[in-house]
């Protein structure tokens, strides 16, 4: 009777730990957290955030725990998962102590829940082993020892997996990847990418703009097209927020909006919001402000592309296959429909 009471108590303590861990994972996911959590959120496990692992791990463990009373296999599988989680949590705590140098209260609470679950399974194992020893059931004793070694192996595996798999993310790189997708036009699934590098105050760029206006729809049928603001004249910085806004929020009529912005650039190097809104009003378009963080990331991404493709003058077009890294560069008067479409066909091969 006592064993049954203890077994039930341990079962519900384990269930409480699982429920608590799941709730805390949700809290971590939606960032209801203290400032100490910031450092931990900059790390991922094999590219997946810790909280996403928790949102998967605890429901799976809960299901196994639920069936553990009627199935020894479910109970043992749950114990192995918990052992791996304990090993991983040891690594996470050491990471916070020695690398992040601050502790995340929510992360520690999740570790506490896993510790509680692990303790209930350990106590249950020890009670069972004690019974086998008292009754001198040697075969069951050997099986219990084998299970213990396998469980310890899973704990070691969890520690090593976390040690190898935990990587610090670069928020700026992630932001660049996000802006990269936001500003791309055309066939986003094509392996061919076309980058048009231009400066808003560059006279030569303006002469190519009508050509780009004509061939851009054809380019977008076959390739991903990116208009890259290249800072040759400092006035270009004044146009980047507007250009990024149009690329992100007005893709459908971007070419017409770009033409309107080009007209402004001919006479004004520092346009105001009111002037831009007046210029695009006939197109039934509206300028939507984007935050400074997106503008900063956009500028950084543009600079990265300029450096990556070794752009020395504007206008320049780079046509490349992102899979095999083959590329072709066209400059100035070389940017015409025949050359561009031929280059895209070459890159598709």
Describe the structure.
- This protein has helices spanning 2-29, 37-40, 50-67, 72-100, 105-134, 138-165, 171-183, 203-222, 236-249, 254-267, 273-280, 292-308, 337-348; strands at 43-45, 48-49, 166-168, 185-186, 192-198, 224-229, 316-321, 327-331.
- With 349 residues, it is an alpha+beta fold.
- It has two domains: 2-169, VKOR domain (de novo design (two linked rop proteins), Up-down Bundle); 174-348, 3-Layer(aba) Sandwich (Glutaredoxin), CATH 3.40.30.10.
- Strands 4-6-5-7-8 form a five-stranded mixed beta sheet, sandwiched between helices. It has a three-stranded antiparallel beta sheet with strand order 2-1-3.
- β1 and β2 (48-49) form a beta hairpin.
- The chain is elongated.
- The model has no long low-confidence stretch (mean pLDDT 89).
User: Given the C-alpha coordinates, what overall shape results?
Assistant: elongated
- Corresponding CATH superfamily of the largest domain: Glutaredoxin
Which strands sit side by side, in order, in the main sheet? 4-6-5-7-8
**Poorly predicted runs of 5 or more residues:** none
* Quaternary structure type: single chain
Count every helix, treating DSSP H or I runs of 4 or more residues as helices.
13
CATH architecture classification of the largest domain: 3-Layer(aba) Sandwich
């Amino acid at each position: 009777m006592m064993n049954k009471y203890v077994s039930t108590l341990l079962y519900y303590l384990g269930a409480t730990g699982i429920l608590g861990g799941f709730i805390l994972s949700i809290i971590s996911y939606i960032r209801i957290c203290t400032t100490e959590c910031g450092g931990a959120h900059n790390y991922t496990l094999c590219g997946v955030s810790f909280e996403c692992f928790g949102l998967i791990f605890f429901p799976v463990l809960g299901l196994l725990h639920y069936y553990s009373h009627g199935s020894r296999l479910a109970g043992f599988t749950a114990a192995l998962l918990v052992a791996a989680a304990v090993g991983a949590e040891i690594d996470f705590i050491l990471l916070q102590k020695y690398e992040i140098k601050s502790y995340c209260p929510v992360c520690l609470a999740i570790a506490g829940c896993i510790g509680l679950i692990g303790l209930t399974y350990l106590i249950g194992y020890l009670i069972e082993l004690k019974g086998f020893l008292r009754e001198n059931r040697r075969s069951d004793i050997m099986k219990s020892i084998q299970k213990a070694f396998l469980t310890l192996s899973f704990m070691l595996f969890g520690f090593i997996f976390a040690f190898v798999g935990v990587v610090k993310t670069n928020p700026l790189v992630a932001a660049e990847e996000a802006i990269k997708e936001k500003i791309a036009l055309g066939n986003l699934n094509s392996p061919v990418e076309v980058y048009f590098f231009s400066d808003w105050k560059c006279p030569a760029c303006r002469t190519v703009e009508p050509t780009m206006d004509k061939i851009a729809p054809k380019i977008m049928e076959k390739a991903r097209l990116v208009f890259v603001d290249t800072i040759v004249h400092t006035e270009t910085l004044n146009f980047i927020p507007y250009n990024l806004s149009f690329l992100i929020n007005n893709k459908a009529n971007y070419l017409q909006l770009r033409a309107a912005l080009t007209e402004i650039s001919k006479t004004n190097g520092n346009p105001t919001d009111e002037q831009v809104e007046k210029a695009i009003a006939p197109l039934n378009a509206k300028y939507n402000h984007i935050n400074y963080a997106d503008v900063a990331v956009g500028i950084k991404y543009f600079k990265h592309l300029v450096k990556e493709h070794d752009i020395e003058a504007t206008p320049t077009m780079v046509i490349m296959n992102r899979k095999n890294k083959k590329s072709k560069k066209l400059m100035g008067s070389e940017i015409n429909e025949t050359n561009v479409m031929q280059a895209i066909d070459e890159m598709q091969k």
